[in-house]
Specification:
This protein has a single domain (3-97), classed as Double Stranded RNA Binding Domain (2-Layer Sandwich), CATH 3.30.160. It has a four-stranded antiparallel β-sheet with strand order 3-2-1-4. It is globular and about 40 Å long. It has helices at residues 45-62, 75-80, and strands at residues 3-12, 21-24, 36-39, 89-97. It is α+β, with helices and mostly antiparallel strands. The protein is 24% helix and 27% strand.
Length: 99
């Protein structure tokens, strides 16, 4: 059985075509585990972030963490937080976590 959670993701729009799209998943920050990624194209953002979420969640689980400690504060809270002012856009994404 897998767990599906909804995450706010912050997206840093690249300055030019030689730069990747930056992705932040703030829900992991308060657990002590960071979750960031990059995507070559706008269309590949969701796949890249799901892969990053899965990798960090598996690492947390292997370290003995309960994945149910993950909770998302919501886009409005993250937008207001100075740590995420580099994010130009926000969206929600559903991701499956290992059980």
């Amino acid at each position: 059985m897998t767990i599906t959670l909804r995450f706010s993701i912050g997206i840093e729009v690249p300055e030019n075509t030689d730069t990747a799209w930056g992705i932040s998943v703030p829900a992991f920050d308060k657990t002590g585990y960071g979750c960031v990624s990059a995507a070559e194209t706008e269309e590949s953002i969701e796949a890249a972030v799901r892969e990053a979420i899965s990798a960090v969640a598996m690492y947390m689980q292997e370290s003995g963490e309960d994945l149910l400690i993950l909770s998302d504060a919501g886009i409005a809270e993250y937008q207001a937080h100075p740590d995420y002012h580099h994010c130009d856009r926000w969206q929600m994404v559903d991701a499956e976590l290992p059980d």
